[in-house]
Amino acid sequence: MSLNYMALAVPVFLFFIGLEYLASKITGRQVFKFTSSITNMNVGVAERLADLFTTASFYFFYDYLHQHYAIFDIKPGIIMWIGLILATDLIWYWYHRFGHEINIFWGFHVVHHTSEEFNYTAGTRITVFQAVVRTACWSVLPIIGFPAPMITTMLIIHGLYPFFTHTQLIGKLGILEYFLVTPSHHRVHHASNEVYLDKNFGDMFIIWDKLFGTFAKEEETPKYGLTKQLESHSFLWQHFHYLVELGYAVKQTPGFFAKIKVIFGKPADFDPAFRELAEKRFLSKHKVKTRSQKFRVYVVAQFSAMVTILFFLLLFEHYLTHYVQVTTALIILVTLINCGAILEQRRWVFYLEFVRGLLIIFTTYYFFPHPTTIVLLGCLTFLSLAWFTSLQRHYLLKLYGNTFI
């Protein structure tokens, strides 16, 4: 069978997240918060979902560059593997540093730093935007002469390692602190303390930070998240808030070159007033006010079902048609948005339920293309529209309890 064994990354990551959670309970360390952890993992699910449609194209991109523009014809060997891992990490260092020092790239990278907690769930916060940008940066590798199979193998290793540096439960690691990126080094990187800002950009090796003057030791207790916290668990807002802010800044800046300067300027110099402007325009203040925690059960149920579906979608992708892949991916995407909206206790989540229901109908008809299916699903849709308001009210009552207004 032609299975996609990269799908195993989903249960492996969940296993280690569960293991860290168990360890935190045993040691009495409060490093997990429900809303933050779900929000973090939602971002990770989206990245895994995007991989379904992008990973192959990245491979062919590297292969095309190697076949047409390679300067050298590098063959696998111990020296070349060592050279590749060092080159990969050096390129990452500069890609990562630019991601913190240039507005447009920070707009793609900021989602990884939005979490106010630091644990393995934060390690899953990677977006497809980051994947595209770093693929462009790593395009120098096939041009040097490294073949695509070597590069993709190395990138898998390079992608797994940093996941394990996102933890507060592992202290300093002795001699390894001198040359590897350790959890201690990466805690510094994720901290919003003034002394820690824009430090420790390395992914596997800390030597680049020491070489280029961006290294800092973990001394004072880190405070995680942004210097101005986002205060939103919306899946969409987590991804796009800074790009929206940047758009407002560019729009209000007169002159072409001045606009370019804003786009490629430093986040440290960016006017925080644009955050308020963007939130006022795009973030609704109309939330359901409830003390009930019933919605958490529904969020966990949705997330569990979504991750299970994602795992099998990735595992059997070679046996599924593009139609099934796309509709299933859309169902998962709507569920991600739904989970974020429920965590923010939004009223409009019911509309997402309706959209997801329609997507399920289209997927069901693909597997059962019978006139009876059309009639049954058509009747179900008609009844849902006829009693839309009543269904919406009952849904919100079940979800948020009797205190919603």
From TrEMBL:
- The reply on keyword DNA damage is no
Against Pfam families, the record matches this protein to:
FA_hydroxylase
Q: Which residues cross the membrane?
A: 48-65, 77-95, 143-164, 295-316, 322-343, 350-368, 374-391
Listed GO cellular component terms? Answer: endomembrane system; membrane
Molecular function via GO: glyceryl-ether monooxygenase activity; iron ion binding
Recite the UniProt keywords alphabetically: Lipid metabolism, Membrane, Oxidoreductase, Transmembrane, Transmembrane helix
Q: Where is the Fatty acid hydroxylase domain?
A: 82-214
Report the membrane topology from the UniProt record. Answer: Multi-pass membrane protein
Q: What is this protein called?
A: Sterol desaturase family protein
Keyword Endoplasmic reticulum included in the entry's annotation: no
- Where is this protein found? Endomembrane system
Q: Chief localization class? A: membrane
State the Gene Ontology BP annotations.
lipid biosynthetic process; membrane lipid metabolic process
Determine the domain of life of the protein's source: Bacteria
